[in-house]
Fold this sequence. Notes:
This protein is mainly α and 145 residues long. It is 59% helix and 0% strand. It is globular.
Amino acid sequence: MRKNTTRLLNELKNAKSFVGFVDKNTDAFSDESISDYLQRLCFERNVELAQVIRRSGIDRTYGYQLFNGRRTPSRDKLIQLGFGFPLMFSELQMLLRMAGKSQLYPRIRRDAAIIYGLNNNYTVTQMQELLEEQELPLLDKYDEK
């Protein structure tokens, strides 16, 4: 049975040694790369990566480089891919977390708009239009490193 994150965190807080914690929980750690995870999502959803890239609004060549691991996606590129799959809010949060990027936070106006778009099944084009209407940075214009 796989441990949930809360239980794993509690065990870590109470661990007598880090090595012992790691040895006991080896199967709980994820070593999957973002590119592998994205490819797995395509397989699990039975969707072609070309389709995800096209729907995400990401340049085709750049998109393939994200999927094959030659490029590391920024937070905005991951969000665009989230619209390209499309992912549910919780799934996108997981993707951002796995990539070490900040999750969407509803107290940040731009993030709130993105959450709204996800929950209302917006396409990436509709999302960009909402951001533009709200005078917020577009997804492809806000790539922090």
